[in-house]
Amino acid sequence: MPFPPIALVGESFIGEGPNAAHTNIVIGRKGGPVETAWSTALASPSAGYAPYVTVVRPDVPVKPLTLFVNKAAAVGELHQRATWGSAQAGVASGVADAVEQGLIPADEADDLLIIAAVWVNPAVDDLDESFRNQRTAAFRAVAAAIHRTPSVPDVLAAAQAGPANPFYTPSAEQLDASAPRLESVAR
Description:
- With 187 residues, this protein is an alpha+beta fold.
- It has five helices and seven strands, in the order ββαββββαβααα.
C-alpha cells in the first residue's frame, strides 16, 4: 500500500517523572509542505534550539530523514547528553522500528520526511530510561500518525471524562465552572 500523499501528525507520551518522553511527529512527502517546514526549521536554529538530522550512528541518518526539534533548551551536561544522545538515539530507533515493522513502507522511506518535536525534561536523570521512553514514544507517534489515531469519538470521550496530563488535571468543579455554554455565545 503506498504511503498517503498528505501530511500525517501523531503524538505519544510515554513514561513518568523526569525521564518521560513526549513526541509530536509530522510525516510528509519530499516536495510538499513538510519539506518546506523541515528545511526551514533546519536552517533556522535559535538560542538553545538547534534542530538537527537524527542519526542511528554518526554518518547514518535514520530513514525517513528525521529532524529532531528539541522542545526544551538543553541545559546542563546530563540534559545535553540526553537531548543529543539518548533521546536522539531513541527517536532514531523508534523511526527505524516503524520502517522495519512496516508502518512506513521501506521502499518509500527515501521519499518521506519526518519532523519530531521531542520533550526531554531538564531534570532527566537516567539516560537508559530516557532512551527507552523516547524510542517507544517515537514509534507510537509514527503509528498514531499512520493510523490517524485517536479517532474523533475517542477524543470526545476523553474530553468528556476530563483532560489530564502529568502537569495538570483540573478538578470536577473546575471542569464544570469553566465549561463553555452555547447559550452564552452572542449570535
